[in-house]
Amino acid sequence: MSSDEESAANSGGITGGIRADMVEEAVRLYEEAERKDVALRLLGGVAVKVRAPHDGLQPAFEREYADLDWITPKGKSSQAQRFFESLGYVPQTRFNALYSRERLLFFDEEHDRQVDILIGNFRMCHEIPFGERMVLEPLTVPLAELLLTKLQIIELNEKDVGDALALLHDHPIDEHDGDAINAARIAELCASDWGLWRTFTANVEALDGYLGRFELREQSKERIRERVRALLGRIEEEPKSFGWKMRAKIGERKRWYDLPEEVEGGP
Predict the structure, then answer these.
(1) Which residues share a beta bridge with 173?
(2) Which domains does the chain have, with CATH numbers?
(3) pLDDT digit string (tens) for 176-213?
């Protein structure tokens, strides 16, 4: 057995190291996770890119990616830790010891990149529940949840705006998952959580004001505007829960969002 074959055997049959290309690495990780029966789904900007049509993202939405974001089901933290360590990622030991029930951090030291793994739920400015929908589709979370994670942020940055616009440009608004943004799912979540509704709808409404910053044809801009109107209309018509109505009476007199801290640094 050659030294390369021996190394592959000792690592459970995994061949090749961490890829320099972020998208290639995301696909490699997902395929290895499937092979090892580890439930992982991609979030973040790389997820937006891999869900783009066959001809790729519009050039206006292309950008550099600094990290990879994943989510795994509740109770699978230890499995996820073993998986990423087996693939050469270095754990942020202290952080993982403190917060492993909710989140894990790993580093690709060769390419100076961070990997963030959420456990169970997405919780930042707002909580986005996944449940069984987490693994509804291969590779990434469903498009509805992906858009929600991008627009639940109280202070949008240019990257999140571009990713949200890319999703709306590339995928129709409909009542199902797959290659469409499931407006019924988004409306359901917004109708049960006034705070999420307040932030998400405000951000969706604000997207039109950002379109001038991206070099897009007028036809592409109008496509996004039409989908924004369709999504907002679907959210508006969804019957609101009793809890939503009670929280709406308080309105913005009480803060309706959290301010999560960014975590950076080496292992």
Answers:
(1) 181
(2) 3-253 (3.30.460.40)
(3) 999 999 999 999 999 999 999 999 999 999 999 999 99
